[in-house]
Amino acid sequence: MYKIICTFEIKFYIFYSAIGGECMEKYLDIFESLYGEIINEISSNLYKNNKEYKDKVQKCAEIVDEYPNVRAVCEDKQAIALNVEEVKGLIQYLDSFEDREEMKSKLLFYTGAKYFYILLKNMDLLKE
Hints:
Layout lengths: L6 H13 L4 H26 L1 H16 L1 H7 L9 H39 L6
Helix pairs in contact: 1-2, 2-3, 2-5, 3-4, 3-5
């Protein structure tokens, strides 16, 4: 019926079958408990399948390797002074980070919409 492309989809069908479509609250609890796993899977799939996303991840890694103080600020949450070059590196890091977070957010939105559609269809709440 639907193409299974990730482990989350398999879990979705298992949970749907186990619950038997009883109520929306149970579904929401399931999705809430899987949120971190879903985000990790989306990030992993983007990294494997999207060159632009992978390039942004690698760009961030290169910047924090080149500027240890930028790593201290961004990853270790340390409040330290940065020189002009480090600030430029920080700006590049934040640009790349924001771009990849936007890519991830869009994919998460579309994935959520897809599963919501499947859920409504399986609960016979959509008309053909």
